[in-house]
Amino acid sequence: METVYINATYVQLTIIGDTKDPSSVHIMASLSAQTSVEDYKNIVNPNGTRYQEGDQAWGFYNGCASRKTGTIGTDCTPVFFVEGEGFQLQGVTVHNGATNAQGIAVLTAGDKFHLMNNVFMGYQDILGLGIGPSESHLLERVLIHMSVIEGQVNYVFGGASVIFNEVTFNTLEINPNSSAIIFAPDTAPENSYGFLVINSNITGVNSNSSKVYLGRSWDQGVVSSEYYEAGKSPNGQLVIRESNIDGVINVATPYAPAATSQRPFSTDLSITRNLDNNTYNRLWEFNNTGDGA
User: Fold this and answer.
1) What is the DSSP letter of 174?
2) Does residue 39 contact residue 10 with C-beta atoms inside 8 Å?
3) Fewer CB atoms near the end CB (10 Å): N or C, the chain?
4) Coil, helix or strand at residue 49
């Protein structure tokens, strides 16, 4: 079991694994939101040998290891956590092995990140982009290029402005007790740019035929739809364009009600529509191909 925690520094860090075979550099741990604090300490920092007071990453580790809640919660599950500016990752596989539970593989909190030729794997909440300690008004931009992301539930989520270029999104076999959902952006209402998926491939196992949702807004902090405030509450922004969408998608109902609030999906199909009108969802598709388009 391994974890990587990188706290913000003035150094713009680049990590390169095996650019020809990312699977040969495999960083893995099994951490779910229900992992106990004691198990977390034993898995992540056995005998106190990996993270010690004074280390740069001590703050993140100790914040999770000191929780009084009994379990660590989703925000302490990342196998790979990085914050700062100008970070690059290439040729690496990051895998959270938690099953049927929330468990983050990679969590980013910063600006000008470039993740290229990587594989990110898990079950739920695999790739968290821009949901770290940064204030919501700060710019967080991420480019993900030539990579593979595999999961089942809300497995790409967060509030950053992200471009996915030449990325394969592979939805694994659906658990009968859950819904398969790919994207769950929680874009700030004043931000016009959330997730852009372009030149990419959205696919999954054959048993998922017509069962997968493309996405839903993550109305973080809104406990029910009656408390949603257009223009104040998060309103996830997603554009999928010029990509292949296989028949795993439920084309009749491609978007699910919002996470946490259960706000029903609604859209404006008018030619003169305002794409930033927060009284509607901001989830769009353009010029895609495939049976699920």
Assistant:
1) P
2) no
3) N
4) coil
- Helix or strand (DSSP H, E) at 65: helix 58-65
Q: Phi and psi at residue 41, in whole multiples of 5°? A: -65, -40
DSSP β-ladder status, 161-165 and 141-145? parallel
Both ends of the chain: CA-CA distance in Å?
39
Cα Rg for the chain, rounded, in angstroms? 18
Q: How many CB atoms lie within 10 A of CB 21?
A: 11
Edge-to-edge strand order for the sheet containing 148-151?
Answer: 26-29, 93-96, 119-121, 148-151, 168-171, 201-204, 244-245
Angle ∠(222,34,185) on CA atoms, nearest 5: 35
> pLDDT truncated to tens, each residue of the chain (293 aa)?
899 999 888 789 999 999 999 999 999 999 999 999 999 999 999 999 999 999 989 999 999 999 999 999 999 999 999 999 999 999 999 999 999 899 999 999 999 999 999 999 999 999 999 974 445 557 899 999 999 999 999 999 999 999 999 999 999 988 777 789 999 999 999 999 999 999 999 999 987 788 999 999 999 999 999 999 999 999 999 999 999 999 999 999 999 999 999 999 999 999 999 999 999 999 999 999 999 99
Domains by residue range for the chain, with CATH: 7-30+79-286 (2.160.20.10)
Q: How far is CA 27 from CA 2, 91, 155, 187, 228, in A?
A: 6, 11, 18, 29, 39
Distance CA 248, CA 245 (A): 8
Residue with the two structure tokens 């741990």? 29
191 by DSSP, 3-state: which?
A: coil
Q: What is the DSSP letter of 23?
A: G
The HSE-up count of residue 73 (CA atoms within 13 Å, CB side) is 8
Token readout for 253 is 């109902």
